[in-house]
Amino acid sequence: MSNLLERLRRRGWRMTAQRRVVAEVLDGEHIHLTADEVLVLATARLPEISRATVYNTLGELVSLGEVIEVSSVGRAKRYDPNAHQAHQHLVCAGCGTVRDVHPVGDPLDGLPEAERYGFTVTGVEVTYRGVCPACGATGAVAENS
Length: 145
What we know:
The chain is an alpha+beta fold. The chain contains 5 helices and 6 strands, in the order ααβααβββββα.
């Protein structure tokens, strides 16, 4: 579980009703919602919340380092509240479902020293791509697979 609300409270983040709703919508395990999905879910909880407030709140959460933007070619950005837990992503080429995965070992081991070109590497992002069971069963596969 991401414990996003708890982290924001510890930071002393000003918790307006609108911000709380956005954080509540994002809080959980394997949450990778688009901004529009966050808007729909937030509006169901707080009908007067605006699109601008949702988008601004997402931007602020990303800037704070409390939420990660997950980009996938040809698809809307998704927002991942598990910013403080090391993990990678598994993306379905058919429907775009995103799951958190935790590979064994250090991903830097796959990058030989000679390929680092003198860089001090501070992070690694790996995206695994495939087809989820539902898309595999229906034969739905995106053009980008």
